[in-house]
Amino acid sequence: xxxxxxxxxxxxxxxxxxxxxxxxxxxxxxxxxxxxxxxxxxxxxxxxxxxxxxxxxxxxxxxxxxxxxxxxxxxxxxxxxxxxxxxxxxxxxxxxxxxxxxxxxxxxxxxxxxxxxxxxxxxxxxxxxxxxxxxxxxxxxx
Length: 142
Ligand SMILES: CC(C)(COP(=O)(O)OP(=O)(O)OC[C@H]1O[C@@H](n2cnc3c(N)ncnc32)[C@H](O)[C@@H]1OP(=O)(O)O)[C@@H](O)C(=O)NCCC(=O)NCCS
Description:
CATH superfamily: Gcn5-related N-acetyltransferase (GNAT)
Bound molecules: coenzyme A
CATH class: Alpha Beta
Shape: globular
Number of strands: 5
Oligomer: single chain
Number of domains: 1
Structural class: alpha+beta
Helix content: 25-40%
Distance between the termini: 44 Å
Mean pLDDT: 97
Strand content: 25-35%
Order of helices and strands: EHHEEEHEH
Radius of gyration: 15 Å
Strand order of the largest sheet: 1-2-3-4-5
CATH architecture: 3-Layer(aba) Sandwich
Low-confidence stretches: none
Largest sheet: 5 strands, mixed
């Protein structure tokens, strides 16, 4: 299946992305999503989407960052294909766009974190050539 991959710039674009993003981030409501994306944009966050014949079916959020460990890298905060359209190639189209974007931005690496229970996503990332390189530790403060 063919997909067009575009950056979500306008509120209208972001609203088309919202129902897809909500499958991954069910705690978000529509108004909160817009406010938080616009705030995160100030920290380099971008939303990109894949549109097929039935509209927007996959969405990703990412940032280009730099640290002492990896140099300049692209970090994928969110990646989801709406459940009704998984397995049709939309996630792969978005992932490939993110890798190309990382190269355009002069990054040497792409990184992301994935919940330990997301076994399907892990198979997808390994299939796309990624390696498991870190353990992520979290301390709950509230
Ligand atoms: C992970 C996810 C984004 C993959 O998107 P998708 O649109 O279903 O993936 P695609 O159809 O583009 O699949 C691309 C390739 O990966 C493989 N693949 C995708 N999901 C897979 C899975 N669960 N297990 C094994 N292989 C998988 C496909 O077979 C395909 O292989 P091919 O290129 O040889 O045909 C999607 O399944 C998803 O949204 N999952 C739920 C949310 C989630 O866990 N997101 C990740 C958060 S870290």
